[in-house]
Amino acid sequence: MKKRDFLKITGLAGMSGLSIGLKAAPSPKSTFPPHRQTFNMSGYAAPKIDTVRIGYIGLGNRGGGAVKRITHLENVEVKAICDIRPEKAAAAAKAFEGTSHSPQIYSGSADAWKKVCERDDIDLIYICTPWSLHTPMAVYAMEQGKHAVTEIPAANTLADCWKLVETSERTRKHCMMLENCCYDFFELLTLNMARQGYFGEIVHVEGAYLHDIVDSFFKKEARYDNWRLRENLRNGNLYPMHGLGPIAQILDINRGDKMDYLVSMSTNDFAIAPRAHALATTDPDFKEFAGKTFRGNHNTTTIRTNKGKTIMLQHDVSSPRPYSRIHLVSGTKGIAQKYPLDGERGRISQGHEWIADTEYQELEKKYQPEIVKRIGELAKKVGGHGGMDFLMDWRLIDCLRNGLPLDQDVYDAAAWSSIVPLSIESVANRSNSVDVPDFTDGAWKKNEPVDISMAEGGNTRVKS
């Protein structure tokens, strides 16, 4: 063999060896059980319920507001209200004074909520308890033949996400996560605009929960059993749903596209631990937090979809900053962004500058969803985060009464909630990518998007 040929061959071999040596370590893969869909809950229309009979579990901040809102709707009966704290149950009962509702109160026992689920005169269980209770309560409600809706997140672990999916499919009962931001007016407007092609092909979306609420973790009057602080012992995006819900619907996630994998990164914690550790030395209620490590101040999670779209989510509840959910929608023809707020509305553009107020008003008239035209002004008067809470409740009841598919199903509840444990896994593994499970077992390829604009139904009356 000639010398130059030998050097060429050995050089190529050396380069090959170098390439192998530089190959990245394999990314961690979240393990989850194989799932074969037994019944597709996407687009499922349960039998009509003319008068929806409801049981509420959890009557603190969110539950207390929910029972007040429901008194404004006809064709509902509140049969039971439940909270482990008798004083919260008694306070919630006052919301029904002078109304047609006379719910039975359940309280004082950690298992009192099960008795509510077991009643045979209830159609819907409405869950507003601490996060760790959402899945077991929703699963038990469905197993007792009830539809279940729950505050966010619907699940804290991947195992719980699968429990919700499998139980909903087996019982054919709805399981919806109460993501109220899907019903905010600008989010509904941009959803309708995206569906009608105003932004062209959607390329990238962003959402967030940036909200300085760290004081509430430590105020005795604002906490119960320190559960919210305890949740923050995990490091990741612990509350992605407010930002993710509306943009996932815009991307038709689970209905034409799906989330494939994510990468998540957190800063160190510069806010929670110092306060928790200081309190642990003086207040017995905080002893369990002595020396513990908390989630970072700020988390950024990026997601790539099967169709090559990207999602950016951010989470920060312990830094001093103005409230923001970002809500950015970027397409080949235009863009929309809500925060920072421009007065009381978001911003829209199809070029280098945001459109003027007059043009925005014309777009708002053209693309305003029917649900906002019909119920929007009344929702603002009833309240609940500017009216979106009432829109969410009204739409839920209207779908159940008319036998329509719910706007968000169990696959949405599982997929959106799964970002919590998946982000924790990615952060713990130097921000390596982590696969997002397909909770639909491939049905996302054929599932149809839900028309949240109220094309059908709409006959549920609101009390004057």
Question: Can you tell me about this structure?
Answer:
- By secondary structure, the protein is of the alpha/beta class.
- It folds into 2 domains: 52-180, NAD(P)-binding Rossmann-like Domain (Rossmann fold); 181-369 and 411-445, Dihydrodipicolinate Reductase, domain 2 (2-Layer Sandwich), CATH 3.30.360.10.
- It has 14 helices and 14 strands.
- The chain has helices at 3-21, 61-70, 86-93, 112-118, 134-143, 158-171, 185-195, 227-231, 241-250, 272-280, 357-367, 370-382, 388-402, 410-428, and strands spanning 52-57, 76-83, 104-107, 124-127, 147-150, 175-177, 202-210, 259-266, 299-305, 310-316, 328-331, 335-342, 345-349, 434-435.
- The strands form 2 sheets. The chain has an 8-stranded mixed sheet. A 6-stranded parallel sheet has the order 3-2-1-4-5-6, with helices on both faces.
- A hairpin with a 4-residue loop joins strand 9 (299-305) and strand 10 (310-316).
- The longest helix is centred in the first third of the chain and has 19 residues, at 3-21.
- The model is unreliable at 6-27 (pLDDT under 50).
